[in-house]
Amino acid sequence: MDNTTVINDTLQEHNNGTESSGRPGFVLNGITTGIMVNTSLILLIVGGNFLVIAAYVKNRRLRSGTYALLVSLALSDLLVGGIALPIRIYGSVKSWDVSAIFIVFYTAFDIFSAVASNLHLMAISFERFIAISRPFYYQTLSVHPYAFASMASWILGVLVASLHPGNYLKNEDEQLLKTQILKVYSVTLFAVCFLGPLTVISIVNIGIFRVARVLIKRVPLQHGGAGQRLRKERKAALTLLVMTGFFFIAWFPFFVINMLYISCVECLPSSLEAQFVMIDIVKWLHYSNSAINPAIYAYRDVEIRRTFARLLGPLGRFCRVNQVEPEYPNTHLDIDMQTRK
């Protein structure tokens, strides 16, 4: 994201240093390893998120506001795997000896897709909180709140990416100003893309489990349709909890390193080789968040898993459809049926 320029400078300095010392092998091996890992991530991200979108198109039972948000999230993750990562592979092969326009586009697109993905996760968690804490109100929701949440995530992604100082401060005499603005921007990005969503998701998850615990005490899980609904919502809450855990693991190291580059460079390893490896690892971690989300859906959601199994044909047995709990009545409104204003 906003440390792409740092990545470029680090790689170029590292390559120059290794060539003069007669050790180009590390660079070659590093690029080869990076291409292999990035390519694997592309396959996982594109394949998994394409399955989510295909499942939504194929199965009318998935055409609800809840699943529409998941598809919008899958689309943002698909952009990560289909565009951001291939650009990164090309940049790595070229040792980031590319044009300034290329760097600006990669940085902006990387920020855009990441912000959109993370804000979608926040919107999904908030939607689940309404579903379990205000079920009657939830059943009256039209498609408009879901469309607003999705559009807001995309628009904020575009806005945050467009405000990156690297987009409009390029002259050498503006370098000091760019550094100062970049510090403010990095803190803002940390709040918008990580701290804000993580705080909201954590608070909402706590609220979901507290409401579910109270309702379970009042209505036993064996109590007909109400018990089935509660079991389904509790399972959705556990899914959000797993997603929150992966979200923290994937993004926290990246933002720590990013903030250190801005405010405490001496806190980082002095070796350029170590910085080279460190940057790749934290980038792989945060890209992996786009790969893990579809896997979580497939494992936790019965209807999506069954649709995956049908789409995958002979490979569908890996979805282990017969080993999940019975499907419960759909509590979501079909988008095609939502005509209320």
What does this structure look like?
Helix content is 77%, strand content 0%. It has 341 residues and is an all-alpha fold. The longest helix is centred in the middle third of the chain and has 44 residues. GO terms for molecular function: G protein-coupled serotonin receptor activity; neurotransmitter receptor activity.
How large is the share of residues in beta strands?
Answer: under 5%
Q: How can the largest sheet be summarized? A: none
Radius of gyration: 22 Å
Global structural class: mainly alpha
Q: Detail the poorly predicted runs.
A: 1-26, 322-341
Mean pLDDT: 77
- Give helix % range: over 70%
Give the overall shape, derived from the CA principal axes. Answer: globular
Write the layout of secondary structure elements.
Blueprint: H1 4-21, H2 25-58, H3 65-93, H4 100-133, H5 135-139, H6 144-162, H7 175-218, H8 224-263, H9 272-300, H10 302-312
Question: Can you tag this structure with a few keywords?
Answer:
G-protein coupled receptors family 1 profile domain-containing protein, 77% helix, single chain, mainly alpha, 341 residues, receptor, 0% strand
Compact description:
With 341 residues, this protein is mainly alpha-helical. Helices cover 77% and strands 0% of the residues.
